[in-house]
């Protein structure tokens, strides 16, 4: 079945550093979504991407929908301690398809 | 977007019993889904809750174990039946306001089976 390969699996960075994570697949997706999950909470939608090549920002977050439609990345600039959490990518193949989730990137930020 | 209320937020249950989880949305939505997230893992889709008809289950999940109801466009329940310790997970309700667009999640139900 369809799979998303998300990397890195975990990151441990210093406050103020920039962060980059990505998801790749052998399948084509029509929509890419990026979520953040804090402990004990459900995933919260950060950015939604609907068009190949699309680059979208949300504050310090920037995400891009790969031109091949098989990948996406998320960048976080100038990280702060509250960025700590698990970030998930998710892809949707179409209006009839289901969301496929990556395995997550666990981000730790040292003050 | 949509505001999703899920309850209970957590529960500790005895093996062999059943627990029903409720999901209430503040607006009518096209699609409602139930996910399971095992400790330290990603999200796995259990089923799509269909309004007025039987849910559509993913491979590995069956109606007898995870009966689902969706009586209207704002409410759904998931029951975890005849629980065992292996059912200890976070169960999450998700909605798409419009089919094929971004999905929003409830805060989850953390279930521990002892």
Overview of this protein structure:
The complex is a heterodimer of chains A (111) and B (114). Helix content of chain A is 0%, strand content 53%. By secondary structure, chain A is mainly β. In chain A, strands 2, 4, 5, 9, 10 and 11 form a six-stranded mixed beta sheet that branches. In chain A, strands 1-3-8-7-6 form a five-stranded antiparallel beta sheet, with no helix packed on it. Chain A is globular. The model of chain A has no long low-confidence stretch (mean pLDDT 93). Chain B is an all-beta fold and 114 residues long. Chain B is built from no helices and eleven strands. In chain B, the strands form two sheets. In chain B, strands 2, 4, 5, 6, 9, 10 and 11 form a seven-stranded mixed beta sheet that branches. In chain B, a hairpin with a 2-residue loop joins strand 7 and strand 8. The model of chain B has no long low-confidence stretch (mean pLDDT 94). Chain A binds chain B through residues 30-31, 33, 35, 40-45, 48, 88, 90, 92, 94-99, 101-104, and chain B through 1, 4, 6, 33, 41-45, 48, 58, 92, 94, 99-108, 110.
Can you give keywords for this protein?
heterodimer; A: 111 residues; six-stranded mixed β-sheet; 53% strand; B: 114 residues; mainly beta; four-stranded antiparallel β-sheet; 51% strand
- Please estimate the helix content of chain A: under 10%
Strand percent estimate of chain B: over 45%
Quaternary state of the chains:
heterodimer
User: What sequence of helices (H) and strands (E) makes up the elements of chain B?
Assistant: EEEEEEEEEEE
The total beta strand count of chain B reads 11
Structural class of chain A: mainly beta
In summary, what is this structure?
By secondary structure, chain A is mainly beta.
Describe the SSE topology.
The complex is a heterodimer of chains A (111) and B (114).
Chain A: E1 5-7, E2 10-14, E3 19-24, E4 31-37, E5 44-49, E6 55-58, E7 61-65, E8 71-76, E9 85-92, E10 99-101, E11 105-110
Parallel strand pairs in A: 2-11
Antiparallel strand pairs in A: 1-3, 3-8, 4-5, 4-9, 6-7, 7-8, 9-10, 9-11
Chain B: E1 4-7, E2 10-13, E3 19-25, E4 31-37, E5 43-49, E6 56-57, E7 68-72, E8 75-80, E9 89-96, E10 103-105, E11 109-113
């Amino acid at each position: 079945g369809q799979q998303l390969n998300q990397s890195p699996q975990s990151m441990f960075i210093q406050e103020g550093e920039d962060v980059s994570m990505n998801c790749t697949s052998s399948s084509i997706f029509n929509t890419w979504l990026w979520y953040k999950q804090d402990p004990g909470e459900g995933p919260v939608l950060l950015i939604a991407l609907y068009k190949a090549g699309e680059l979208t920002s949300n504050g310090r977050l920037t995400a891009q929908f790969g031109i091949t439609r098989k990948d996406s990345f998320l960048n976080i600039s100038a990280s702060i301690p509250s960025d700590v959490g698990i970030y998930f990518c998710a892809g949707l193949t179409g209006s009839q398809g289901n969301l496929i989730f990556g395995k997550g990137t666990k981000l730790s930020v040292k003050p | 977007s949509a505001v999703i209320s899920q309850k209970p937020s957590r529960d500790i249950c005895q093996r062999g019993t059943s627990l029903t989880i409720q999901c209430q949305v503040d607006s009518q939505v096209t699609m409602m889904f139930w996910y399971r997230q095992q400790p330290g893992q990603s999200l796995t889709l259990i089923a799509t809750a269909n309004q007025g008809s039987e849910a559509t289950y993913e491979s590995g999940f069956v109606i007898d174990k995870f009966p689902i109801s969706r009586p209207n466009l704002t409410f759904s329940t998931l029951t975890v039946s005849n629980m065992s310790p292996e059912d200890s997970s976070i169960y999450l309700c998700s909605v798409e306001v419009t089919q094929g667009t971004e999905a929003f999640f409830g805060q989850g139900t953390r279930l521990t089976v002892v």
